[in-house]
Design goal:
CATH superfamily of the largest domain: Aldolase class I
Structural class: alpha/beta
Strand content: 15-25%
Oligomer: single chain
Number of helices: 12
Bound molecules: iron/sulfur cluster
Shape: globular
CATH architecture of the largest domain: Alpha-Beta Barrel
CATH topology of the largest domain: TIM Barrel
Length: about 375
């Protein structure tokens, strides 16, 4: 059996975590076309007869092409999708073919640490991690108990690994890959304040640069967390803000007030040079003017902002007729609008206006920090 990660056209620098865990469990290699797209038919070189594809909403048609091509070359091959505990990553759901491999162990300390060497893209990851250009990925928790209607991660069972288990993974991985920075990929890292603080205390001695790339909740953020994150080496954080219109926030069940968002962002800006806000264009109840106000608000608060398009639930529901599995890309170069809240040309216009404010590169280590890290790596062998 072997796994294939189809080209999804976004997040090339982030491993497919469902495949990372599953391939480690089964000890099978991963042909990773998302991080190394070419040669685009190299999955055909593997004469195995049992191919499992990680099918996602944004690579559905590419996954179909891969399945068909493999079947043509190896008519007796079994072709399945990977289905399991990790059903969403970076806001995009994983999907199933009729025949599927179910890997459904509970996300916990029982999991072995992901063995990225099983990915055929590992040399690129190795290089980028060691150069400090890409962040090593860490999942400390999975799922989210909140109910935000626009979010694929909503209302899912919340699973946590212990902080000690996460730190152990980081230590082993750092020794092996010599990465300069890592990022936490949790759906919502700050669900539990004590856990965030414990993590910060325990990661601090490692003297690493790290990033809360996915959106934190503003209502669960305070001065103590900000200090703790900062002191532990966190160099960048993001909030899932979505809108600064109270009615829109209410309609999407965000469970936060504009005041709470403003307070959290002000605290973060005081402590961090790089703060990012995620916003959504075209949410129910929004308008061009309201979304424009969000953009101006972000500028006023001196934060980077990442605007993506709203995908109405029926279009994001795989069981719906209007489901858009193969082209619903709501952020990145090829993103386009799907919401009818206001004219889509206006949504597109706003998206383009926000391009400049998008956060592109993680803040890099300064020269002194980089030198110290290299020295540490040399000493630790
Ligand atoms: S808190 Fe964040 S991860 Fe949780 S449902 Fe809301 S947007 Fe999604």
């Amino acid at each position: 059996m072997f796994f294939v990660n189809p080209d999804s056209r976004v997040n090339r620098n982030i491993p497919n975590m469902a495949l990372a865990f599953a391939s480690t469990h089964y000890g099978c290699q991963v042909v990773d076309h998302n991080t190394v797209p070419d040669p685009k038919n190299r999955f055909l070189d593997i004469d195995d007869g049992d191919m499992v594809i990680s099918v996602r909403s944004l690579n559905y048609s590419e996954a179909g092409r891969i399945a068909k091509a493999y079947k043509e070359k190896y008519p007796d091959a079994r072709i399945r999708s990977l289905s399991g505990f990790l059903d969403i990553q970076c806001c995009y759901p994983f999907l199933d073919f009729e025949d599927k491999l179910v890997y459904d162990r509970l996300f916990s300390d029982e999991f072995p640490f992901p063995d990225y060497e099983l990915f055929d893209s590992i040399e690129l990851f190795r290089k980028k991690w060691a150069e400090g250009k890409w962040n090593f990925p860490l999942m400390t928790s999975l799922g989210c108990p909140f109910l935000c209607t626009y979010c694929a991660s909503r209302n899912r069972q919340y699973y946590m690994r212990s902080v000690d288990h996460c730190i152990e993974e980081l230590k082993i991985a750092q020794k092996k890959w010599k990465f300069g920075s890592f990022e936490v990929l949790d759906d919502c890292f700050n669900v539990k304040k004590d856990r965030v603080i414990e993590f910060c205390e325990k990661v601090k001695p490692m003297k690493l640069n790290w990033f809360c790339t996915n959106g934190l909740r503003a209502d669960l953020f305070d001065e103590e967390i900000a200090r703790s994150l900062k002191e532990s080496g966190c160099a960048f954080l993001s909030f899932g803000i979505e809108s600064i219109d109270p009615e829109t926030l209410r309609l999407v069940k965000k469970g936060e007030t504009v005041d709470q968002i403003e307070r959290a962002v002000n605290i973060a800006v005081e402590h961090f040079e790089h703060v990012n806000g995620y916003f959504i264009i075209g949410l129910p109840g929004s308008s061009f003017e309201k979304d424009l106000r969000a953009l101006e608000w972000a500028k006023k608060h001196r934060i980077n902002s990442h605007f993506s398009f709203y995908v109405p639930p029926e279009k994001g529901d795989r069981h719906s007729d209007s489901y858009l599995p193969d082209d619903a890309i709501f952020y990145g170069e090829q993103a386009r609008p799907y919401s009818d809240s206001y004219p889509q040309e206006e949504q597109m216009k706003l998206y383009k206006m926000t391009e400049e404010m998008r956060y592109r590169e993680p803040p890099r280590e300064n020269i002194i920090k980089r030198g110290l890290r290299k020295l540490r790596n040399m000493i630790s062998g």
